[in-house]
Structure formats: C-alpha cells, structure tokens
Design goal:
It is built from 32 helices and 21 strands. The longest helix has 39 residues.
C-alpha cells in the first residue's frame, strides 16, 4: 500500500469532508454503471438487417410496385421469423441487464470521526468501512481492525466455510459479514472492485453454441454466394423467353420476366426452415417450462442434447447446500453428566454457526443453562468453549485442533481419537469433538483464548451435507448416455470426492486446484484423467471449462453461486439453480426453477426431440432449395420460361412443406443425437432436388415443344411439384402412423382443393389440364417419385454407416435409470428407437 493509504489506516477517524470531496472530484468513487449486455439497436440490426431479409424485402417491394401483391405472400414468413428472433434476444438482454452482485443499498463508513450511512455509489477510495454482522462489503478493502471478524465468501469463491479476517487481510466486495466486527480501508472502487469486474465479464453478450443454427447460417451463406449470378441467369432467360430484352421492355412484358425471376429467387431461400427452427425451439422451451425449467435462450434446448461432458458444482447441485447432523460417536466410557444439555445449549445459542445449529433437533433444550464465560468459535482455531458455574469447561471443535498431536505427551492418549476422526472425515463427513475439563472457565482464561488443562474427549459428532435425493439417479442416466462428469468445487477436495462417491461417481480421490497447471493444454490432459477437483477459484472453473472445450468436448456447467457465473457463461450450456445468485441465473442458458437436478434427463430428451425433428423437416426445406436452385440454373441455361408464379410456389410449399413441417417438428422423437446434421440433410436434399429439377425441366421442355399454353404448363408444373412434394413428405415421415396419416391426408385434400375450388384456382391462375398435359404431368410425377425412392434408399444406408449403434445393454440401463424420459418405462411405450437413420 502507498504512503497515502498507510496514513489513512493510521487515522482511526477516517477521511474528512475535504478529502472525500477531493476523491469525488478525481472520480475515485464506487459509482459503477454496468454496461448493458447488448444494445437494442444491435439486436434489431442482427435480426432485421440481414442479407436475406434484404433480398426478400426487395422482391416484396418489386412485386408491390408492379401491382402483383398476390405473389408477395412469402413476405409474411420473413416478418414472422424476424419478430420471433428479436423477441427472444430482447428477453435474453433483459435477463443479463438485471445482473447485479451487490444488493446492499448503503454502506457504513467512518468520516470525521463518526460513523454514517452512505449509498454504495458514494463510497470513495481510502474510505474506512465499518463492518458488522449482516453487512455486505461494498468495495474491495484491506482490514485494519478485527474483533473476530468473519466473512462468508462462498458466493464469490465457492469456499463454504467462514473466513476469519485479521488486520492486513483483503476483503472482497460482495462478501457478507457473518460474525464479529471490524473496519477496513477501501483500496479498489467502482469498475475495479471484484464484484463489478466479475459482473462486467459475465454480462458480455454471447449466443449459445448451436449446431442447428450454425449449420443453417453456413447454408444461408452458401446460398448468398450463388443467388446473385443465378438470379441474373434466370432474368436473362425470362427476358429472352419474352422475345428479347428490347422487345420485352418496349412491349411491357418485362414484368412477367421479373415475376418469374422473383419466384426463382424466393424459392431458393429456405426461410421457412429458419422460422420452423425458431418455432421448434420455442415450443420446446414451453414444454420445459411446464417441467419447471426456464430456457433463457432457445437454442439451449438443442444444445444439451449435444453435451458429452457436464461439470457440476457440489454445493447447491449435488448437495442441498446445507449441513445436517449425522451421528454421535461416544468416546468416553463414562461421559460427564449433562453433556447432552451442553449440546442443546450450543444448538440454541443465538450466535451459533450453521454447523452448531444442526444440534437443535437431535439435542433439544431440556434445561436452560447460563454460561459464566465463553470463547466464541473462530475458523482460525476451529473450536469454541463455554463454562457453566460448577460444571467445568466444555469445548466443541475440530478433533485435530482440540487434541493436536504435538500435545500428546501432555494429555491422555488421543491418537486413537484422531485416527477415528480422520476415518470419519474421509467419508465426506465434517467431524467435531465435544470435550470436558473440570477446570472452571474464568474471564481471564476466556480473554486469553486458551484451551483448559485436563481436557477429556466425550463424544465425536459427525455432520454431512444433505445430498440431493435425485443426484444419484440423474448421474446414472448421464453415465448410461455416455456423458462424462467432472465435479468442481471450492471445498476440500477429499470431502468433495467422498460426496461424489456417495452419488455413484468413481472418484477415489480429489485434486487440489492449487496444484493445477495454468497452461490450458496441460490442464485439458489432466481433466481427461481426473474427475473431482476442490479448492477451485472462479477463474479456474472458467479455465476448466475452456480447456475441456478446446479438447473438442461439448460442455455443460451447473452451479448456483457467483463463483460459478464465469464458468457457466463460458460453457456451451450453462445451467443454474433457482436458489442461486442473480448473477448465475442471468448468464445461464437454463434455470431449474425448483432446483431439482432430476429435470436434466428430461431436458436432454427434449433437446433430442427438437434436434431430430428439425433434421427431419430440414430435409423437406432443403430439398425445395435444391430443386429450386436446379430449376433456376436449368431454365436459365435452356432459356425456357420459369414454370411457376410466386403464389403457386407459396401454396405448394405450404401444403407439402410448411404446414406438415410444423406438426412434424413437434412430434415425439427419441433418436439419440448424432453430430453432422447438415451433412446428413444435404446428402438427401441435393440428389433428391436434382432428380426433381431434371424431371420438371424435361416436363417443361416436352410441354413447350408440344405447344401447350403457358398457363396450362404452369398448372401442370404445380401439380407435379405438389404430388412429388407430398411423396417427399411421406418418405421423410416414415413410419406413417397416427397423426402422420391425418397430416399427410389433409395436405393431399388441400392439393386437390386448390384445383377444385374455383376461387382458389382463379387466385392461383390454375387452369383445367388437357389430357395430354395431365398424362405428361403424371408421368413426370411417377419418374420423380421413383428417383426420390432410390435416393432415400441409398441415403438411409449411408446414414446407417455414419451413425453409431446404441448397444442393447445401454438402452436397458437408460430405461432403468431414467424413468419419465423417452426410452424409460414412464416416458414412452418402451419400444426401441426406430428413427435411427430416418431423420
């Protein structure tokens, strides 16, 4: 500390008014405006000002300008997708902006020799904070006076034990005073304070990693590169088909060429797939909300289905976060009279810590005792003492501290006691000893804080953290699914390892994080071998997640404390408990509203349903993109009129893709997640699209050569596309059962209706087909269907080779350990998954 700080420490009266004003003028105050996670403009820009929205908007405006509003139906899909995306990101922004680590509205400082309350923002550098039990530390400071000052730093560091603070020790903003009193001189304020630095780092905006979303973005990028030259190719062909550029412009038929070009461009963009993905995520989020799981960013529904490693914080995740009494283990053959009443006094003491309060239930107060003198508990010496008139002195504390090995020559043989206590501690239980001395506890002895002589152990008391009842079953589910587990905590590594063993984790020992390498590659290698880590700092938790992700793992992180916030934000999927801090919940992707760890298997199952169904419907949309691109290129090269109006494509898309895709995306699907969504989808969509495009081009050429009128040619093309689109739907929906029969049947009826109902036919400019056109359309349809079946046959076998088979034994284990999720006894019919390779 500099000389200025040293001078401030020596002055117990604190700063004077002039010194405070001087620091305020220099900006050395605790005022802190946390930056918003993401500006409203950036959200709007990301969702509205996109390349494809620009293309769609341009096409929409062109059609309105030339008076063809009937062909502009595609604009509504783009608008809906933009609204859904913007609303979800605004919700995420609000959650992040609510992040706050400091809840204390004011701080107590000493100025001009007097204590006064000031707003937290008005605390200045070198202020003297006056700390009492229940206060939250407003800024980082260094202790200058301590009267058994104890702080709870668990929400910052993960260490659940109270921390004694002596003069010279650092106190961090955000920690809570739980015992004693003291004062500290502020040495970091505002943005430099620990809590605010952690808050700012956690609030930096980032989107959850999503293979579905990233694959779609990559696909849209590819389409963006080809849409420009293809649109020029199509426009040229349509102008030539109208008699040439000069004649089309002079004769006013250029608008027909523009409409046809717009139809080709819009058909190439799978806007409905983006919308359907958003809807599937949203419905998944609603379903999870009914199970008390809050989804704060929609793609997280898919993300947890991809997780192959989950990092768990012990306190609040595997355990309830509280201490409960375990058992009493008598040591003395003839314990002194009244020892149970002493334990009752310890439990009922108003100043009892969390461990002592656990004694209330097993040892209720039967006799009111009045202490003559006492020594309060200290986490440094780890024992407390109390004396009752005529009853001698009673000591409660850690066995190794009350009966240290160095004093063995001066006390009864207590080596056996220490060994027994160590054996109990190795099981993950916290161990205390109650000891007695006939010597009275005088005020002088209490002030000196010395253990009495002739101390005899009476009973060993064990305490344990209350393990969540659903922890073992949930971890067994993840083990059966091949999801690895790493347990990271701020507590003692051996205690954490013992609790891990209690919930079924193979953890022979724990690793002290103070020995972890700083190099992320070395850390990653260690993480592949070890399972349990203790004494982990918040930045180390983040480094652990980072190292695992660098090794190719998809990582989920659970926790409830501020110390978990950075790691939860860094993870692919962050999961917070509702009982956790506001910081942790704000940056998490998922929040377990009732804190039940057992919800996670259901979240995994929901993620799998969403991922598998989106893959299925993506094949519908991408097949359309493939044949639309193929048609645009073929008709551009062949200089033929494009055989569809935009409105005709809009309706056939709705009947064969849009409406059925909506229902397919929401159906049950328990297929296990397999990476490579885009490759599998395109491996069907591209060859199927090429087949359809070639057949339609051949149909159009033959119809043109036969002299079939343009409106009849378009009507026939629409019929072919409708029949083939329904067949692609049938192929991708197999096995056809239940609601699928109803959906496909309804779409078939709709296809018939647009030809049979005069109003619909007139609006779509569909005319009655001649016998020759009808036969040619049916022939084209059958040829396309045969080609699609061949493509699907080859595709299914190729996918089967790429997809790992789930062993039968593993399936059986999942059903036993995860009831209520697909594949389990209460989650489905119990039939084996038949969807592998059919997505």
């Amino acid at each position: 500390m500099d000389t200025r700080g040293a001078a401030v420490e020596e002055r117990t009266g604190g700063l004077n008014a002039a010194e405070v004003a001087e620091r305020v003028a220099r900006g050395e105050t605790n005022a802190f405006e946390s930056p918003t996670s993401r500006s409203a403009w950036s959200i709007i820009r990301a969702n509205v000002l996109t390349l494809f929205n620009g293309i769609i908007a341009a096409c929409f405006v062109v059609l309105l300008v030339i008076g063809r509003w009937q062909d502009a139906l595609f604009g509504f899909s783009a608008i809906a997708n933009t609204i859904i995306g913007s609303v979800q990101e605004f919700n995420a922004k609000r959650a992040l902006d609510r992040l706050a680590l400091l809840h204390a509205p004011s701080a107590r400082v000493r100025r001009d020799g007097a204590d006064r309350e000031v707003p937290v923002a008005e605390v200045v550098l070198d202020d003297r904070l006056v700390l009492r039990a229940g206060d939250q530390v407003a800024a980082d400071a260094r202790v200058v006076a301590s009267e058994r000052l104890q702080l709870d730093e668990s929400m910052l560091t993960g260490e659940s034990d109270p921390v004694d603070k002596q003069p010279g020790d650092e106190v961090l903003s955000g920690s809570i005073v739980i015992g004693g009193a003291g004062s500290a001189v502020v040495d970091r304020v505002g943005a430099d304070a620990f809590a605010n630095r952690l808050s700012s780092e956690a609030k930096q905006f980032s989107l959850v990693a999503s293979e579905l979303r990233s694959s779609l973005n990559r696909l849209l990028g590819w389409i963006a590169w080809i849409i420009g030259p293809v649109s020029l190719l199509v426009l040229n062909a349509q102008m030539v088909a109208q008699g040439g550029w000069a004649e089309a412009i002079e004769g006013g038929t250029w608008d027909e060429a523009v409409v046809a070009t717009v139809a080709a461009i819009v058909a190439m963009i799978p806007l409905g797939l983006v919308l359907m993905t958003s809807i599937a995520f949203a419905v998944g989020a609603v379903r999870l909300a009914s199970r008390k799981v809050l989804v704060q960013e929609l793609p997280a529904v898919e993300g947890l289905a991809r997780v192959d490693l989950i990092c768990l914080d012990k306190t609040g995740t595997l355990t309830e976060g509280d201490i409960v009494f375990d058992a009493a283990h008598p040591v003395a053959l003839e314990p002194p009279e009244g020892w149970t009443d002493v334990l009752g006094w310890y439990g009922a003491d108003p100043e009892a810590n969390a461990t002592a309060r656990c004694l209330v239930e097993p040892y209720p107060v039967r006799q009111v005792l009045e202490p003559a003198a006492r020594i309060a508990f200290s986490s440094a010496r780890k024992w407390s003492a109390v004396g009752f008139a005529g009853g001698g002195t009673w000591v409660l504390g850690g066995p190794e501290m009350v009966f240290p090995a160095t004093d063995a020559a001066d006390a009864p043989d207590t080596a056996g006691l220490r060994e027994r206590a160590a054996a109990l501690a190795a099981t993950g239980r916290r161990t205390l000893v109650l000891a007695h001395s006939p010597d009275e506890l005088t005020a002088e002895r209490a002030a000196a804080e010395r253990l009495p002589r002739e101390l005899t152990p009476v009973v060993l008391l064990t305490f344990r953290e209350n393990v969540r009842g659903d922890a073992r079953e949930t971890l067994e589910y993840f083990a059966a699914q091949g999801v690895a587990v790493r347990i990271i905590s701020g507590d003692n590594p051996q205690t954490v390892a013992a609790i891990a063993r209690d919930v079924g984790v193979d953890a022979p020992h724990g690793i002290d994080a103070r020995t972890l390498p700083e190099d992320l590659d070395e850390l990653g290698e260690l993480l592949e071998r070890e399972v349990v880590f203790g004494r982990v700092t918040p930045t180390q938790k983040r480094d652990i997640v980072t190292a695992l992700r660098r090794r190719g793992h998809t990582v989920a992180m659970t926790g409830d404390g501020v110390n978990d916030a950075l790691a939860i934000k860094e993870a692919d999927i962050g999961i917070a408990m509702e009982s956790g801090s506001s910081a942790t919940k704000a940056v998490a992707r998922l929040v377990l509203l009732d804190g039940r760890f057992s919800h996670l298997p259901g979240v995994v199952a929901e993620g799998r349903r969403v991922a598998a169904n989106i893959e299925r419907v993506s094949m519908l949309f991408l097949t359309k993109t493939a044949y639309a691109t193929g048609l645009a290129v073929l008709f551009g090269v062949m200089l033929l009129p494009f055989p569809f109006l935009p409105r005709q494509l809009s309706v056939t898309d709705a009947l064969t893709i849009g409406f059925p895709a909506f229902f397919l995306a929401l159906m049950p699907n328990a297929r296990r997640y397999v990476p490579g969504f885009l490759r599998r989808s395109l491996s069907f969509a591209i060859p199927a699209g090429i087949v359809i495009a070639l057949v339609l081009a051949l149909y159009s050429r033959m119809a043109t050569d036969a002299g079939i009128p343009e409106d009849e040619l378009r009507s026939g093309s629409t019929l072919v596309l409708g029949i083939v689109g329904l067949w692609v739907l049938i192929v991708l929906s197999r096995p056809i059962d239940g609601w699928k029969i109803v959906i496909i049947g309804a779409m078939g009826v709709g296809l018939v209706a647009i030809y049979a109902i005069p109003f619909a036919a007139d609006f779509l400019e569909l005319v009655e087909l001649s016998e020759a056109t009808a036969l040619l359309a049916l022939a084209a349809s059958f040829a396309s269907i045969a080609g699609v079946e061949v493509v699907r046959f080859v595709h299914r076998r190729a996918v089967a080779r790429m997809t790992p088979t789930v062993p039968a034994a593993l399936v059986a284990t999942v059903r036993q350990t995860a009831p209520g999720v697909p594949g389990g006894p209460a989650g489905s019919s119990g039939r084996p998954d038949r969807s592998r390779g059919r997505g």
